[in-house]
Amino acid sequence: MVDNNLFSQFISAIGQAKKIVFVGDINQLPSVEIGNVFEDIIKSKKITTVELKSTHRQANNSKIVELAYMIKDNNFDLKKLYENQTTENQSKTDLQTIFVDNQEQCLKEIINNYNLDNKTGFHEPYKIQIISPFKDDILGVKDINKFIQNNRFKQEKLDENTELCIQINNSEYYQKDKVMYLRNENDLSNGDIGVIQKIHKDSNELKINFNDKIFSTINNASLKNLTLCYACTVHKTQGSEFEKVILVLDPKRSSSFIDKKLIYTAITRARKQLVIIANKNSFINGINKNPETRDTTLVKHIKLMYKKRKKYHYSYIF
C-alpha cells in the first residue's frame, strides 16, 4: 500500500540507517497512488528476501487459507469451493459461498449473515466486517452502510427524532453506530474503527469508543472526518483483520474492477469465518483475472544504484 511519494519521504527521513526491514504481501492490492514499491524491490533481486509461509491469522486447517492459496497459486478448484456451499451444516465450516443472481437476494443474505449468532454484528461490532469493492450504487459501501443502519434501528424501534440521533453532513448517526475515522489527528489514525457511545446534540459532539483503546470526543470541526463502517472498501480494510468477514460482490456491476488481488486481499482479512456473497460467474472471473501491470522504473533504478554503489555495505532484508 506504500506509494512512490510516501516511500521516498520515508527513505529521506531515516537518514543513515544501516538496516531496513519491510514486511508485506505482494499478492495483496498495490497502493492507490502511483508506484509498485514493494513488488518492484523484490523483483529487482538485489535485496535479500525471505518468504514467510506459516499462517497465524487463521487455523492450520482453515478453508479460508485453502482458498487464498488457490487464488495465489492460480489453482482455483470450483469443486472444492462448492463443498463449502451454504447448507444445513454451514456453521461447521469457516468458509461459506452464497451465489446470488440479483441485488435483492444479495441484500437479504447480507442481513441474514450480519444478524446471525445473536446479532453479532451489532453487539460485537469489531468482530464482523462487511467488505465491498465499490463505494457507490446499491451494493456499494455507502448504501450498504445505510441499509444496515436502517435495518438495525428499525429493529430496535428508535425514533429518528430522539436524542439518540444526530445529523452530520446530510448523514444520520445514531448512538451505538459503528463508525470509522478518516484522518490522522491527535490520538486518532485514518481507519480507526469505533462505536458512538454518547451524542450531545446541543454542542454537536460525539463520544466514541475506539476499540476500548481511545475514548474520544469528536467536536463539530472533526465530524466531517467520520463515516459509517458496517461496510467498508477492500482498500480500507487492508492491514486489518476481523473474526468474521462478509465479502459482497455486486452481481449487476461490471467485473472489470475485480481481480485476483482484490479478492485475495478481502478474503484474507477474515480470521475465523468468511462469507462470500456474489454472482458465481463474476466471482470466478475475478479470481482468474490478473491485475493490470504497473509500468514503473524502480527496478531499473535499484539495479543501477547497486551497480554504482558497490563500495557501500548497507544491508537490506525483506
Q: Structural class per helix/strand content?
A: alpha/beta
Query: How many structural units, i.e. domains?
Result: 2
Q: Number of DSSP helices?
A: 11
- Supply the CATH superfamily name of the largest domain: P-loop containing nucleotide triphosphate hydrolases
Describe the structure.
There is one protein chain. The chain is α/β, with parallel strands linked by helices. It has two domains: 4-52 and 293-317, no CATH class; 63-287, P-loop containing nucleotide triphosphate hydrolases (Rossmann fold). It contains eleven helices and 14 strands. It has helices spanning 4-13, 37-43, 63-72, 78-82, 103-114, 116-123, 141-155, 234-237, 260-267, 280-287, 298-308; strands at residues 19-21, 95-99, 128-132, 165-168, 171-174, 178-181, 193-200, 205-210, 214-218, 226-228, 231-233, 242-249, 270-278, 315-317. Strands 2-13-12-3-11 form a five-stranded parallel sheet, with helices on both faces. A five-stranded antiparallel sheet has the order 9-8-7-6-10. Helix 5 crosses helix 6 (116-123). It is globular. The chain starts with a helix and ends with a strand. The model has no long low-confidence stretch (mean pLDDT 83).
Itemize the secondary structure elements and their pairings:
Elements: H1 4-13, E1 19-21, H2 37-43, H3 63-72, H4 78-82, E2 95-99, H5 103-114, H6 116-123, E3 128-132, H7 141-155, E4 165-168, E5 171-174, E6 178-181, E7 193-200, E8 205-210, E9 214-218, E10 226-228, E11 231-233, H8 234-237, E12 242-249, H9 260-267, E13 270-278, H10 280-287, H11 298-308, E14 315-317
Parallel strand pairs: 1-14, 2-13, 3-11, 3-12, 12-13
Antiparallel strand pairs: 4-5, 6-7, 6-10, 7-8, 8-9
